[in-house]
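Figure 3 (text version): structure tokens given as input.
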């Protein structure tokens, strides 16, 4: 027998149990009798064809099927809230939270200052910056938007905007003053390089320098971008970064070195899952990020 389409009121019950962690707590929140809630969930599980919860002595936990259903149920709840605001309170300001995953530099330079602008424009809207090297799963709802350095392969992910920037080497003025003066060309092997430490030693910059410099040994490494930046500012060595001179750029005070890095470029993609892209709160934050992208395109070589 074919499975019936899932109904939103059933998914609301599922979501309440999943988020509260027990049938009794969800029944209190929903103002339903617990036997009624249990019966409705049992009917939903029968329609799905698999158990959604594993009942325990204290509360319950999601099964594998429940884990698969949870992100979609949360998205439906978000859409329902957005629809309610749009229809019944059309002039009310945006509310809620928008989670943006980004590499550490972009979280520091772009997202953190953006939070101040968002507070002025939409006080009810909160920005949550998820800074890290790992790629979060937008399909599972781990973030609403993402700034990624590689083009997404998932066809359900939408590229809302993108940048391409030259890759260059930066150092402190004091470090640069100790280097041979032009026109003597700089060689990669004569510089002290600052790179990523474990567990991120497989990052592209590490691999490129290791391939270009025999017996490569970095002068300093860290698993934290801000620590790398502080080391560079202190004159501990040279840091490879994209030439994206944001108005809040952390590169202020550093100098670009004439190092033969080749025609390497760094890409940045603003990405959203197609389920989230149309939400008003997500659209608003995406538009602010795109406006920052447009400012970045004023940097020579950035497009």
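Below: residues designed for each position.
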């Amino acid at each position: 027998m074919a499975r019936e389409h899932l109904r939103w009121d059933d998914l609301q019950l599922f979501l309440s149990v999943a988020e509260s962690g027990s049938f009794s707590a969800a029944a209190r929140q929903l103002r339903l009798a617990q036997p009624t809630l249990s019966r409705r969930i049992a009917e939903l599980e029968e329609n799905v064809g698999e158990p959604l919860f594993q009942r325990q002595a204290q509360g319950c936990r999601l099964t594998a099927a429940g884990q698969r259903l949870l992100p979609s149920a949360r998205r439906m709840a978000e859409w329902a809230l957005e629809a309610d605001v749009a229809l019944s309170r059309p002039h009310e300001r945006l509310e809620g939270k928008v989670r943006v995953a980004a590499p550490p530099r972009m979280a520091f330079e772009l997202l953190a200052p953006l939070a101040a602008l968002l507070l002025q424009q939409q006080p009810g809207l909160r920005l949550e910056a998820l800074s890290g090297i790992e790629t979060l799963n937008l399909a599972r709802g781990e973030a609403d938007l993402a700034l990624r350095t590689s083009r997404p392969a998932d066809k359900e992910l939408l590229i809302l905007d993108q940048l391409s920037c030259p890759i260059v080497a930066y150092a402190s003025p004091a470090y640069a003053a100790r280097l041979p003066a032009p026109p003597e060309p700089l060689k990669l092997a004569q510089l002290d390089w600052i790179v990523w430490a474990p567990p991120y030693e497989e990052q592209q910059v590490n691999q490129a320098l290791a391939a270009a410099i025999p017996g490569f040994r970095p002068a300093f490494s860290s698993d934290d971008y801000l620590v790398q930046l502080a080391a560079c500012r202190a004159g501990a060595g040279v840091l490879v970064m994209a030439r994206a001179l944001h108005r809040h750029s952390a590169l202020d005070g550093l100098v670009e070195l004439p190092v033969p890095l080749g025609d390497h470029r760094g890409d940045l993609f603003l990405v959203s899952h197609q389920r989230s892209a149309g939400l008003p709160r997500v659209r608003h934050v995406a538009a602010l990020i795109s406006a920052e992208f447009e400012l970045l395109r004023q940097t020579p070589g950035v497009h």
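The mean pLDDT is 87.
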